[in-house]
Amino acid sequence: MPKRIAKANDVTVPRDDLARDLFEHSLANRTLAEDPAPELTRGVHVAVYGAGNVGRQVATLLGSRGVVVDRMIDARAVQLRSMDGIPVVAPGTAHQASMPVVIAAFNREADPQSIHTVMRASGAVRIIDFVELHARFSPELGDRYWLVSQDELRSHEDAMREGLARWADDSSRMQYAQLLAYRLTGDPALLPNRVGGVPYRPADLPAPVGAARFIDGGAFDGDTMRAWHEAGVPVEYYWGFEPDPDNFSALVQWWNAPGGPTAEHELLRVALGARMGTAQFAAGGGEASSLGAGGTIDVAVCALDVIIGAAHPTEIKLDIEGAEPDALDGARALILRARPRLAVCAYHRCEHLWSIAEWIAALDAGYSLHLRPHAHSGFEAVTYGLPPDAAPVPQLAIR
């Protein structure tokens, strides 16, 4: 008799071949594809959790559909008091039992598991997760990082299924299945735990030997290198690529400040892409600044194959707001020549969860592939490619 470990909207998942079965059971559950959030009809009173920008957007959207937003729930209730005329109350004081609670918090800091737990403890009998809300109103809410309409997500069924076989360790397969299960069901109980460690050096993957020659694609204000510096990670050469003018200024200022790193370095205010050229760039968004049509400035775009020359980097990190596939295409020859360790963010677009790993596997360069989520809800999910000479990864117990 197989043990039972999880339930996703009344679909019980057996332990046998757990990752595959979790994915298949979640895919078979078509609640979000066919009838998400049926309570949200004209005249129904709801509470909305989260009084930030997303909360304001959700309250406005619900109000336009005749749903009555009775109150907003937010830990900052004392400071906010109200939002657009709607009272803001603290969690635990909202008497949620009388109405559905709609979760309007969607970012890497918002833990949906904890939010659901607090709402249930407050008496809520129906909690509509943001993933379920989005399934109901995907045209109005739009694509948000990995979150797309159920029709779009399910159009990738074959690719998602094929992606299960690419991961080199059981933890990665399970975390991959859990992230997809959450996207398909909106059940936060299925989400994987975050993986700790120094940024882009997860504690459960073997650390590289010796000093790094590090390509930092999406250097932002130096946050990764700063964390490495504080943790004592040895770096002998650093290439920092950051196209946003404000971010780049902060990077230079930190690097040149007293006590900063001493590694040889090149700081370049350019974006990474598939080829040399220029592109429009939406600047001023902090770490979310990105390439794209309608950008506010033009920036230089460089291919790593060209700009790195004959150097042999040992690690490449790419966190460039959805442009990761283009940057990989522009680094193909470099990767095949130098075999660096790869750390590529896989959460900026829905398909990146499986397509980044597919791209690395297609190189046929001996990389082992590992997935690690470093924030809530699958934000900061990173595909790690370990070169053939890396130490073996221990098979850890899965959640």
Can you offer a commentary on this structure?
- By secondary structure, the protein is α/β, with parallel strands linked by helices.
- Among the domains are: 121 residues, Rossmann fold (3-Layer(aba) Sandwich); 153 residues, Vaccinia Virus protein VP39 (Rossmann fold), CATH 3.40.50.
- Helix content is 32%, strand content 23%.
- The strands form five sheets. The protein has a seven-stranded mixed beta sheet with strand order 13-12-11-18-19-21-20, sandwiched between helices. It has a six-stranded mixed beta sheet with strand order 5-6-4-3-7-8, with helices on both faces. A four-stranded mixed beta sheet has the order 14-17-15-16.
- Strand 11, helix 11 and strand 12 form a beta-alpha-beta unit.
- Helix 1 packs parallel to helix 10 and helix 9 packs across helix 16.
- The longest helix is centred in the middle third of the chain and has 16 residues.
- It is globular, with a radius of gyration of 22 Å.
- The two termini are 20 Å apart.
- The relative contact order is 0.12.
- The N terminus is likely disordered.
How does the helix and strand content classify structurally?
Answer: alpha/beta
Spans of at least 5 consecutive residues whose pLDDT stays below 50 are: 1-16
Q: How many strand elements?
A: 21
As a percent range, the share of helical residues equals 25-40%
| Averaged pLDDT | 90
What is the approximate shape?
Answer: globular
CA distance, first residue to last residue: 20 Å
What is the number of helices? 16
Q: For this structure, what is the CATH class of the domain at 193-345?
A: Alpha Beta
CATH architectural group of the domain at 193-345: 3-Layer(aba) Sandwich
Radius of gyration: 22 Å
Strand content: 15-25%
Quote the CATH topology of the domain at 193-345.
Answer: Rossmann fold
